[in-house]
Amino acid sequence: MAPNTLKEDVMIVNEETSEKLVVGAAPRKYKVVWFIVAYATYVHIAAVYGLYLAVTSAMWPTIALTFINNILSILGLTAGVHRLWTHKSYKAKLPLQIFLMLCHTASNTFTSISWIRDHILHHKYTDTDADPHNSTRGFFFSHIGWAMVKKQPEARAKGKSIDLSELYANPVLRFQQKNAVWLTLLVAYIIPSLVPLIWNETFTVAYHMNLLRVTVVFNTFLLINSVAHMWGTRPYDETILPAQNKTVSFFTLGEGFHNYHHVFPHDYRTAELGDNFLNLTTKFIDFCAWMGQAYDRRYVPDDVIAARMKRTGETNEKNT
């Protein structure tokens, strides 16, 4: 099955579970969640105004704070909910866990537990209707449309089968889940909008610059669901949609080596070249290991990688 060439639904069988799954491009009925549509519309418009203010009015400390908060929010996604808690590719001590939980909260991308559940579904049922952001439904759906509609019945059904007991047993994740509303308001919106007032920034500038950050973080990470499932190379497995995309890796601090990641999801580097300058999340985890906060980093031996590339990878790899 060539990537993104489906014209109608195809029934496939999951080799691990023998489950029948639907993958394809036939029309689906979507139940729009208008509150999320309204919110997404508002923050994107506000972000454009925030960009205008960044160019015309914002003070340099405000711009610097926005940039730093942007990086920290992405680390909460990449090093936190993704590599640490979803794939268990390394372990973290309590201070690092709290830090990453707060960083993820600042990203305003759902609670950590719900994010992890959906990402487990994404890997278990990639690009089928049990995948919350099935890329065979088109670019808009896989990028942001999936967040504006209720989940497909297949995704809801499979989501109920995911065992979340270990996540709820984690006191850091349980605390965030229990206090999600006020914690998100405080960490993602109130504090970043008030801190610039210390150096006499106007609230209008501070508020809209923060909404610019929230919008950039959200769209940046969504590139992995959309762009990295449509364009790029597939040197590790040419039969799947996830692809290597260096542009996505640049913006997501190393998450665009997506063909590798779907073949070897438990490698903490998410890439064969763990020391690649585009993979800043790996460098962050290595730094945390040096500080004694991260440990038991998992990676795939070179001979295993080479064997898989020879067996299932593209024969003519091109640079993205």
From TrEMBL:
InterPro entries: Acyl-CoA_DS, FA_desaturase_dom, FADS-1_CS. Its main location: membrane. CDD domains: Delta9-FADS-like (cd03505). Belongs to the fatty acid desaturase type 1 family. It holds the Pfam family FA_desaturase. It is found in: Membrane. The chain crosses the membrane at residues 32-52, 58-81, 180-199, 205-224. The keyword NAD does not apply. One of its GO terms (biological process) is unsaturated fatty acid biosynthetic process. It comes from the Eukaryota. GO terms for cellular component: endoplasmic reticulum membrane. Its cofactor is Fe(2+). This is Fatty-acyl-CoA desaturase. Keywords: Fatty acid biosynthesis, Fatty acid metabolism, Iron, Lipid biosynthesis, Lipid metabolism, Membrane, Metal-binding, Oxidoreductase, Transmembrane, Transmembrane helix. It comes from Operophtera brumata (Winter moth). It is a multi-pass membrane protein. Residues 60-266 form the Fatty acid desaturase domain. The histidine box domains are involved in binding the catalytic metal ions. One of its GO terms (molecular function) is iron ion binding.
